[in-house]
Design a protein that fits this description.
three-stranded parallel sheet; 3 strands
Amino acid sequence: MTIQETAALLQTMDRVLLLTHVRPDGDTIGCACALCLALRQLGKTAWVLPNEDAHGLFTPYFEGVLAPAEFVPQFVVS
């Protein structure tokens, strides 16, 4: 997919759960959190899946974006 196709597809989504990889680094965490906040600015419901493998150093970046246990997504983005 091109960047434009990806952006167009994301704009059609709501109730989005964003995934990170195993032992996520700062780049992954930053991208997931930024995409989550960008989707929210578009009026979407978006959350990042909690990842127990994330180093505690990154905890502040997850503030307000980690999915609650009861969240049921319509779309999952990884």
